Amino acid sequence: MKEKTDYSGNLKIRQEHWQDSPCSRCQGTPCCRNLPLAPGRLESQRDFINLTMASVYNGLFPAMKDSGEWTYYLSRSCSFLSSETGMCTIHKELHQSLICKTYDAHSCWYTDAFNSRRYTTMIPFNTERLIWLEKRYDLIRSRFASSPDWETLCRDMQAEGPGFEYPVTGNLSHALQRKLTFKKSRSSRYLLFPPYKRPGGKNHFELLSFRLGFPGVSLALSDTTWAFLVETEMDPAKLDLVRREYYPAIEHKDGNFSFDSIVREYSPYSETGEQWVLLHREDLPTLTALTEFDASGRIKRLPSCAEILHSLQPSSPNRVA
Question: CB of 180 within 8 A of CB of 278?
Answer without folding.
Answer: yes
